[in-house]
Amino acid sequence: MELTTYAIPAYVLLIVLELVSYRFLPDETEQGYTVRDTAASISMGLGYVVFNLGWSLLYVAAYEGVSRLTPLHIGASWAAAIGVFLGWDFLYYWEHRAGHRIRILWAAHINHHSSQRYNLSTALRQPWTGIGTLPFGLPLVLLGFSPAMVFTAQSANLLYQFWIHTERIGKLWRPIEAVMNTPSHHRVHHGSNRRYLDRNFAGVFIVWDRLFKTFTPETERVIYGLTANIDTYNPLRVAFHEYANIGRDLRAVSTLKDRYTVLFRSPGKAYSAVRRAQQAPQAAPAA
Q: For the chain, which residues make up each domain, given as ranges?
């Protein structure tokens, strides 16, 4: 069982405490909670737990298979635990970045960005179709880390990210902001402001964004949500609406190049390809 599943009681308690804090310490600059939005986030979290049971079987099979093939085997130790934790955080940066830059992967990740509010319940909006993470964990298994160690590192990484989904915490001590992913950094990541799009992909350590030039500090008020919000609280629509959009867009284009763009290039390039196809003059019917 994942660490995140064991942490569910703590999630619930912290969400309740944050909710109560808005009652006694209101702040007009923060959006707080609404019943429908929070219910949608909790529903997404419950769906993630259910769907992840199936995905976990696939992950176990793949990781165990690769573990049997590799000649490298790193035993359990504190050094190994630190190594796999840092290794996964580095690979998570690239997995997360790919989830924003490859549309078929964005279709799974988009639900995490679908709320127009930002509170601890937003962290529960996790993907129900989790196959995109699989190839990014395999290098650690190939290097000799056991599947159990990799799963634990992945769970710990996700567990860390729960607390950064809040407006209640401002900027922290500068050395912490320089190294760690914080609520301020992650608010930027959830922003639909033009300057905030596709920035701050870090899981635990913001140093990856600084190193690979995707870091942007929080300098203006964040507008949460998507550039084109879906305006629904139905968890099924939240989870699968982008797959439906991809199906619609594949029908709208006709060339292999455009179909590749719709599936595997960035969402922006995919939308541009569809617009071009829709605006192209139609061939006259044969006489």
A: 3-167+223-238
